[in-house]
Amino acid sequence: MLQLGSKQTLTVVKKVEFGVYLGETANAPENERVLLPKKQVPADLKQGDAIEVFLYKDSSDRLIATVNMPKIMLHQVTFLRVAQVGKIGAFLDWGLEKDLLLPFREQTRKVSADEEVLVALYIDKSSRLCATMNVYAYLRTDSPYQKEDRVTGTLYEISQNFGAFVAVDDIYSALIPRKELYGEVKIGEKIEARVTEVKDDGKLSLSIREKAYLQIEKDAQEVMRVIDSFDGVLPFNDKADPETIKREMQMSKNEFKRAVGHLLKEGKIEIGEKCIKRR
Description:
The chain is mainly β. The protein contains 3 helices and 18 strands.
C-alpha cells in the first residue's frame, strides 16, 4: 500500500517521458502507482529496480514521490523553521520544494517568519499532510529517565487545570503539574526540570524546583529581594493567604514559610503582626 508521509522502497513499474511510475511490485496496477518526476530519476534507474522515496502531495493534490527526504516523517515530532505566514496559516520549511502548511487552527500560539516551532506531521481530513503544534498525541512514552533525573525539554502547552505540558528531549511526554508551576513560563520555552515521577503509562511528571532542602536557600534569597523591593518591609507575613504569596513570591505557602523560617533563624528578618521586616 502506498503510504502518504512515509519513506518507502518501491519498484520501477514503467518508464515514461516525464519520469517513472513506481509501485510495491513490478506489476502493480495503475491505481497503485505513483509518479517519480523525471528530474528526480537517477540516470541509471531501470524498470524493475527498487528505489527509496518519500510520498507526499504536489500543488495539485496528486500523490507524488521524491528521492529527497524531508526533515519530518508522518507522526514524528521535530522543530521546523517558519518560511512565511499566509492567509490560511504558516508555511514551514521541511526540506521539500512545497512548504508544509501549519494551519492557524493547529497553532497553540501565533508564530512568526524565521522562528523555529515544535510540530508533528499528520494527515488532515482532506488527506493532505499538515503540521500541528498540538504534539501531545505524537510524543513517546518510553523514555529512559527515572525519578530524580535531570531533563530538558520544550514547553508546548499550558493548561489552567493540569499545568504545563513538556516535550522532554522534544520526543517524550511530560507534565509539570499545576502545583509545581511557579513563575512565568511561555509556550515554546526551553526548560530544565527534575523528574518527580514516572507514571505507569510511561509519561513523566516534572518539577522546575529543587528538593525542599536544596530550594530553601534560593527561596530565602528571593524573599529578601522582594522585601527590599518594598523598601525593607513586606506588607504581609507567612500567615497570608496562599494566593497572595503565590502572586507576589512565585512560590507556595509552604515554600514561603520554610524560607521565612530560614531567614528568621539567621537573624535577617523579624516578623510583625502583618508584615516582615529586614533587620
